[in-house]
Each structure stands twice: as structure tokens, then as C-alpha cells.
Amino acid sequence: MQPEKQTSSKGSTIGLALLFGVIGASLTSDLENFWFGALLGALLAQIFHLRGRVQALDEQLQSLRMSIELPEPTRRAPPSPATAESTPPAAPATPAPATAAAQAPAPAPQVTSPVPLPVAQPTAAPTPPRERVAPTPTPPRRPAPPPEPTAIDRLVGEFISWLKRGNPLARIGIVILFFGATFLAKYAAENSLFPIELRFVAIAIGAFALLIIGWRLRDKRSVYAQLLQGGGIAGLYLTVYAATRFDLLPTGLAFGLLVVIALAAAILAVGQNALSLAVIGTAGGFLAPIMVSTGSGNFIALFTYYAVLNLGVFAVAWFRTWKVLNVLGFLFTFTITGLWRVNGYQSDDLLAADAFLILFFLMYVGVSILNCVRQPPDLKGYVSGSLVFGLPIVAFGLHASMVSPIEYAMAWSAFALAAFYLLLGWMLYQTRRESFRLLVEAFAALGVIFASLAIPLAFDTRTTAAMWAVEGAGLLWLGVRQERKLARAFGALLQIMAGIGYLIGMHYRNATDLPVLNSTLLGAVMLSISGICTGYWLFRNRAKQARYEGGADAVFTLWGVGWWLLGGLREVDMYLPSASYGGALSFVALTVALLAWLSLKREWRLPLLIATYLPPIFALIALAGALDFVHPFIRWGAVGWVLLFAAHFSMLRLGESRDVQGLNWLHAGAVWVFTLVVAWEASYQIGELTTGVWALLPWGVVPALVIAWLGRQQLRPRWPVAAREKAYRVYGALPAAVGMMLWIFMINISSTGDSTWLPYLPLLNPLDISVALCFASLAMWWSSLSVQQRETSWPFDWRALIGVIAALVFVWLNAALIRTLHHNFGAPITAYGMAHSTLVQASISIFWGVLGFTAMTVAARQRWRYVWIVGAGLMIVVVAKLFLVDLSNVGTVARITSFLTVGALLLVTGYLAPLPPRKVSEQVTE
């Protein structure tokens, strides 16, 4: 049982304290009496509260006593019949033990009347006690899937798995043996332990021994035999290269021996189908010069040696598709070449180094082609992808780092590489081999990429952007025709990069540029045309698009329109400074016409929608921009606004036949913009001619005229106003009416109504006449609305609307009174001055009393109960104001007049204006 919630005395205490405090202060006009009265009211509230609590506690005590004195059967309520019927019969009592039955004799049965024995009902078996069910264990959360391995992770994993296959101990041993032999040879050379010739002979004998033993074991233990042969090949590489570095072998002979070793390794690997042998031999060959390096910087010997090794890789690729071997050679070759470029390159080495670089590049391009002869490339895998796409990037990067000091060398290099790839792709395409199909597409893409790269290397950023945009549009068109997703994606990416490059290189003004014929405008136009064409091609191909390409046609169309507007508006601002504002509006109107023509010509709906919604969007931007220009007709703005409105209504007319959505709001928006532009311009022009309140009047008069025009019973013209009655009479007029009411409120609380060269007359001055015109237009407009239109315009209680209008009228009339006192009697018009002005306060009290009296009298005659209540509330406010404000200076004539006038009005009101009844049949309240 929950305890009873006690009542609180907080509300009554505050209320009585305020009431008695106000009464005390009003009687003596002293602040101390306010606190005394408040204390007295609080004490009275507490007394009343305690008295109520005592009475409640006494009642609870009496009820508790009565419940205790009642007997037990009386307090226990008998069960209701329904409860008795629904209660199941009690189970028979458990028989007592035999001893108890013997002690208690059974009473004799008394038979009064034959009562039928009740039929025995089958009793339900006793419900066994419920076993405690163990809670079901929550299944463990499934761990998140591991992240996808990177290319480096896959390479390391494959190396580890290769090491574990076959004979891992032997593989580890051969690697360690190779490094040990290398370190031994280097140590012996540095310490001159043996004659150098003897050292190299010993290494060569050991290498041959490994080769012979491995060859003899090729059938019995193939894996072990391949490891030994790989170690022997690596040892021979090491011997020949090191002997050449120490001038023990002529260069020609050494080169011949390296070619023989490379061919021998390739023959052994291909003959035995041993990838491990090829990998070990190749890795050993590439590591040999690193291990025995003395830092002499003889890059000719190094790159010649690597050329021979790569020749072996190429020879293997002719017979076997071992992509791991290809990537291994590629990584060793270009990694070591890059390290040499950083640490040992001199400008005099350009020709020789670049020749070796081109040779390596051609070799691995050939390797890629040879692999495709037997197996199509997997460009998504790290093996084929790194060789096909990584090779030109690495090679061109190294080449560019060497030729960058030469003017236009990088541009011509990129162009030559693009031509090479495009020509090679075309030659492979002519073979019509299916295995070349993906490689042809890759070469074509690389050709386009390097052709695109050649453009910024040779031209400025704006020209580059234009060429990239056109190139991207062409690639996307090709991708649409051939249904190639990669080509479409690259074309789109190229256009985006073109736009970014254009923005980076765009400058606002250049004295050398010519109107229209300048790279800035032409670049923007090319970006625009490329984007719009791309959007159109994607629109025509939307049935065959991928899921991720949905909406791409709209994006690129808007992209193209945006670049068109950017370039055109910049051109107008630069070369038409005296008509920039009107020129910008006119250019947008021209854009709307071009988009409409394109839509009708190509039966493409999207440009029509853009052209329909572009004028209102740009109108808002233009209005925001006009804030910097003071008024909207500056710099031929009048011509621009006329053309923009003409384009807007033309699109609205065209949109009705094309079922464009949202036309009602677009018609209404035209009303708002028109009203704002005309009011703004009229205010500016009047402000230029005179001073005072005149410049503020158009902000209310222009909306009033528009609302009055839309409040006629028969709207004109037939189109668009009469044809779209709801759009204009409701959607268009309602915001104008709200703005006009805000203007009424703001101008009455902030303006003095100074009419400058005209004398100030109460209610007949320009400000009050304009406000009266606004109220008249509101009444005219509201009376023209149908019931449904009124519900749409004001979905709330109609009495709230009457209250809003009455409040505005009240503010207006009070402001008119204060302005009259200010201009005719010199009363202050500031907030502080009005609060301390006896004349103003007394006049407001009398005026409010007259308003309350008038409202109550009219309401009593018309039986408007709510209006009478509002008038009575105003009279209560007047009375409170008399005691709280006017009473402080009771000795003044004005305050005495206010008291006497309000008192008389209350007496007359009480006699003439009793409270109207709720219904006609009720009697009038006296």
C-alpha cells in the first residue's frame, strides 16, 4: 500500500503573498508595505493549509477507529455469488491417523430430506513442482572477419608456404649456405687469406659440385635436387660477377659466361618444370652483386649483369608461366635501380642509365605478353597487376627523375610511352586472341593515362583541364559503347581530376586575356560540354548500368551545367563591369533557354527539370548578392530581372505540358520574389529622393497591393493566375501577408512616423494610411478565400486569428497615439521617456479604457461573448496599471484624469455592456 500523497501549499503561498503585497503597495505607494503584505499573505496561506491538513488527519483517525471497533464477521465481506460459483471445491482433507480416529467418535448422520448425491468429478492430478530451468546460455558473438591481406602479406605468406613445402630443412640450408659462401668470399678477399684466383676457382668448383649432385638426384629426390642445382647456379653467378669486378675476367668473356649461366638455369628449370630452381637461381643471381659490392659505382657492369639475368627470366617466360618468378625479377631489377638512382646517379650517366632502364622496361613488357600467350592475366591479383600496371609507373618515375631538368622532356616521354602502349595494344588486338583481350584493355588504359599525363606536362592547368575533360568524355563514350565498366569509371575520374585542376589553376583576372577567347572560359566550356555529354550518354545507357552507377547521369549533367554557369558568370563580371548584375541574370535566362532546347531536341527530361528550377534558385542567389549592391536594379538589373522572369514563366508553361512536379510552389515563389524585388527597389528609389518614414513605406504598401490584386473575386490574367488559383491566392499571398503583418508590428514599435515636408495628422499621416491600407488588403484577401482555402491558410482555431489581428490593431492604435503625443505635444518617444512620462501613461490608460469599453459594448449588443471577455481583460489590465503605475504620481492632473475617466468608463460599461450569454436562450448576466 503506497502512502497518500500530501498536498503542497507552495502555489497558494506564492499567490496570496503576491496578492496581499500588491494590495499593500497600491494603498500606500510604498515598497516596504509590499513586503509586509506579502508576508501577511504567506502566513494566511500556511494557516489555511495547516487547517486543511488537520481536518484531513482527523477524518482518517475517525475511519481507523470505526474499522477497529467493528466485529470480525462484519469486517470480512462475504464472497459474491459469482466468486463462489467460480471457486473450485476444496480438496478432501487428508485422513487423520488411526489413533486420532479412535479417540473422536463419528456423529450419527441426520437425514432431513433425500438429497441427490453429487456426482464425483474427476480430479486433476496434482501439478508437480516446476523444475528450475537453467537459463539458456547466450551464444558467443561471432568474431569479426579478419581484414583482407595486402599484396605484401600475400607475398610473405607464399614465401613461407614455399619454404614449408617439400624439404624445408634443405631449403633453409641452401639459403644459409649461399649467404655463408658469399660472406666467406668477401672475408677472404678483404683479408687476403688465399690468392684471389684460388678463391674464385674454389667457389666455382663448389658450385659445379652442387649442380652435378643435384642433377644426378633429379629422379630420386627431385625437390632436394632442385635446391642443390639452384644453389649451384647462384654460386656460378657470384663467381663470374665477382671475378669481373676484380678484373680477373675480361668483360666480354664475363658477359658470355653470364649468358651461358642464365640460359643453363633457364634450361634446367624448364626441363625439370622446377619453379623453385628458377626462383633460387634468379634470387641468387640478383643478390650476388649486393653481397660482394665494394662501392666502386660501376653501374655499367651492374646493369649489364642484370640485363643478362632478366634475359634468363624472359627465356623462362617463353616456356613457363611462372608469374612469381617474373615479379621477383621485376622487384629486384627496379628496386636496385632505384637505390642506385638515389645514391650513385650523376647527370653524366643519363644516356647509359636511361638506355638500361628502357631495356629492362621492354623485357618485362615482353614477359607480360608471353604470359598471356598461355594464360589470361588476372589484373586484380598482385602478380599480374603489379607487372602490368606497376612496371610503367616505376619505369616512368625513374626516367622522369633523370630527365626532369630538360624542358618538355617529361611531356615527350609521357607522350612516347602513351603511343607505345596504344600501338602495342592495337597490335595485340589485331591478333584476335581471346587471351589478349584483358591485356589489350589494360594497355589501352595505360596509353590513355600517359597521354593524359603528357598534357599537364606541356600546357597550363586550364588547357590541361579542358583536354582531360574531353578525353574523359571520349573514354566514357567508348565505355558505354563497349559496355566496359573500367573505361566508364576512368573517364568519369578523368573529368573530376580535370575540374580539380581547373580550379587550382584558375585566376580571376588577367590583363592579357581576351573576352571569350581565353583559356579560362574555354576550359570551363569544355568541362561543361564534356559533363553534359557524359550525363546524356549515361542517361541513354541507364538500362545497362551497374548498380553503383545509379544517378551518375544526373550528377554529371549538373556538373556540366555548373561549369557552364561558372565560366559564363565569371566572363560577364570581368568584361561587363558596368552591367554585371543584369548581365548575370540575362546569362542565366539564356542558360534556361539552351537547356530547354536540349531537352526538347534529345527528349531528355533532366535538362528540362534543371531549367525549371534554375531561375528560382538563382533568384535567391541574386537577391543575396544585391545586398552588396544596395538595390536589385543596379547595373542593368531591371533588364536582367525581366528576362529571368520571362524565362521562368516560359518554363512553367512548358512544364505543364511535361507533367513537371511542384509547379504550384514555383508560381508562388515568383510572387514572393516579385514582391521583394519591387518593394526593395521602390524603397531605395524613394530613399534617394526624400527622408523620414517614406523609404520604409514600400515594404508594407507593395505587399498590400499584391495581396489586394490576389484578393479579387475574379483573378486576372487567365494564365497563370486564374489557372493556378490556389498557387497564387494561398501559397503566393500567404507569405506576403505574414511579411506584411510583421512589417506592421516592426514599423509601429520602431518608427516615429516623421513625414518630413507634410504636417503630422493623427491617422491621416503616410504611416497610418499605409497601415490602414495593409489591413484593408488583408480583409479583402481573406474574404475572397473559400472555406477550404481558409483552412489551408489557417488550420488553427479562428479565434486565434482574430486575436492576432486584434493584437496588431491594438499595437497600431497605441503607436498612433504615442506618435500623436510626440509630434503635437512633445512627449518623449523613447522607451525610457514613455515609461516616465505622465502624459503618455495617462493617455494610454484612458485610451485602453476606451478600447475596453467599446469592445464590451459592441460585444454585448452583438452577443459576442469572447470579444466581451477580451474587453473585460483589457479593463482589468487598465485597473492594474492604474494602481501599479499611475498611482505613484496621484497628485498630477493627468493621473487624476486617468483615474476619473477609467472609473466612469467602468461604471457605464457595467450598465450598458453585461456579459453576453453562451446561447441565445440563456438570460443575460447582470
UniProtKB/TrEMBL annotation:
Residues 96-124 have a biased composition (Low complexity). The keyword Membrane applies. InterPro entries: DUF2339_TM, UCP035905_mem. Keywords: Membrane, Transmembrane, Transmembrane helix. The chain crosses the membrane at residues 12-28, 34-50, 169-188, 200-217, 224-243, 249-268, 275-293, 299-319, 324-344, 350-370, 382-403, 409-429, 438-459, 465-480, 487-508, 520-539, 551-569, 581-600, 607-627, 633-651, 663-680, 692-710, 730-749, 769-788, 800-818, 838-859, 866-884, 896-913. Residues 136-149 have a biased composition (Pro residues). Residues 70-150 are annotated as: Disordered. This is DUF2339 domain-containing protein. It comes from Steroidobacter flavus.
